[in-house]
Amino acid sequence: MSNHRRKAHREKDLTSRFLAGDWDEDRLAQSQRFSQRSKHAQHNKMLQTLELRAEEAADQSDWSSLPIGQVQQVHSLYVEVIAPDGLYLCVVRKTLSKSTDYSLVVGDQVRFRPIEIRDEQGRPEAVIEQILPRQTLLTRADSFKQIEQHPIVANAQQMLIVAAIVSPTVRWGLIDRMLIAAEAGGLKPIICLNKIDLAQQADRESSQAVLDHYTSLGVRTLQTSVPEKIGIDELRNMLLGQTTVLAGHSGVGKSTLIGAIQPQLEIRIGDISHYTDKGRHTTTSARRYALDFGGTVIDTPGVKLFGLWGVTLDNLDDFFPDVAQGSAPQWRLESHQRIAESLTT
Ligand SMILES: Nc1nc2c(ncn2[C@@H]2O[C@H](COP(=O)(O)OP(=O)(O)OP(=O)(O)O)[C@@H](O)[C@H]2O)c(=O)[nH]1
Ligand SMILES: [Mg+2]
To answer: Which of these, 293, 278, 29, 312, lies nearest to 146 by C-alpha position?
Structure first.
C-alpha cells in the first residue's frame, strides 16, 4: 500500500521532474504512454459498468418522453449521439441489441436515457432505448457475392459520389455501382469529379462528356478542385440544408472537400504518398459533421469495391434506363455487363 502511494506521488510529478532535469525525454514519453494506457483502462472499466446497467430490463412506459438524438459516430464500445443539448456517449440497451436484427449506424435517430455518469472529459453518458424508423439506408454487400449486408449510413437524403479525375484515376464502373446503391437506398445521387487541377484540358473535356451522360439520366454532377477553388461554392449550395453522405475510393479527396466547404472543421486528410500503399485509409469510420451554414455531411472511409445489396438480374435494368432504352454509350454497356456477370457468379 505504501509503495503504491509513493508511486502515485512520483507519477504526478513527472513534468516537474523532467523540467528539473531529473528525467530525460525518453523516460518522460514512456511514462506518459503508460499513464495514457491506464487512462484507457479506466475508460474501458467505466464503459463496462455502463454496459452492465444497460443489461437491466428496459422500462418502456416513458419512451415517448425520452430525448431524441442522432448517431454521430459508432465506436467499438460506445456510440456518440448528438442531441440538441450536446454530445452523449451511449451504449445500446442489451435487450434492444438482442431484439433488432440490425446494428446502429451513423445517422440513425435514437431515443436515449441520460444517466448520472460522465466520462473523464466530462461528457454525459446515456443508454440508447430505441432506434426510430429509417427514412433511407445506404447499404453495401460485403463482397461481390452479396453474402452479408453492411449498412453504412441511415437517413441521409443525398449521396455525394466523389471520384478523382486522376490520382487515383476515375473508375466509372465504381461510380455506376454507387449510383445503384444510392437509388436502391432512397438517396439522391450527385457525382463530384475532384482534382481537376491535376488533369489536362482534353481529359477534363472528355470527363465532362461522360458527366453530361449522367446529367441526361437525371443525376446532378460537378467538377471540383480544392486548391483552385473550382466548384466549391456550387458544392456548398448543393449541400445546403441537406444531409449528405460522401462516398468514394480512398484518396479521392472526400475529407478535403468537407474541409474546403467548412474550414473550421478539423478533419484528418491523407498525405497523397499514403495512397501508393495498398489499403491505407485516412478516414477509418463514418462520422457526421454539422455545417454552420445549414446541413449535415457524413464522411466515410474509402471503398475499393462496392458490393450491391438488393440488386438482382431481374431488377438490374431498372438502374440502367439508358441500357434498357438502347441509348447507352459503350462504357455503360460494359459496366452493365460486368455487374450482371458479378450477380451470376
Ligand atoms: N491536387 C489536388 N489534390 C487534392 C484535391 N482534393 C484532395 N486532394 C489531396 O488528395 C489527398 C487525399 O485527400 P483525402 O481528403 O484524405 O481523401 P479521402 O477521400 O478522404 O481518403 P480516405 O479518407 O482514405 O477515404 C490529400 O493529399 C489531399 O490534399 C484536389 O482538388 N486537388
Ligand atoms: Mg477521408
So the answer is: 312
State pTM to two decimals: 0.82
Q: Compute the distance from residue 74 Cα to the ligand 2 centre, in Å.
A: 16
Residue 250, ligand 1, Cβ within 6 A: yes
For residues 31 and 44, which has the higher predicted lDDT (pLDDT)? 44
**Cell numbers at residue 82, please?**
448528438
Q: Is 223 in the pocket of ligand 1 (CB under 6 A)?
A: no
Ligand closest in space to the Cα of 231: 1
**How is residue 73 written as a grid cell?**
459516430
Q: Chain centroid to CA 303: how far? A: 11
Å from CA of 102 to ligand 2 middle: 25
Domain termination site, one of 131, 148, 166: 131
Verify whether ligand 1 is closer than 6 Å to residue 282 (CB atom): yes
Q: What is the pLDDT of residue 222?
A: 98
Ligand 1 mutation pick, 256, 275, 300, max ligand atoms within 8 A of CB: 256
User: Rounded mean pLDDT of the chain?
Assistant: 83
Q: What is the CATH number of the domain that holds 166?
A: 3.40.50.300
Say yes or no: 269 and 156 in one domain. yes
Domain total in the chain: 2
Q: How far is the CA of 285 from the centre of ligand 2 (A)?
A: 9
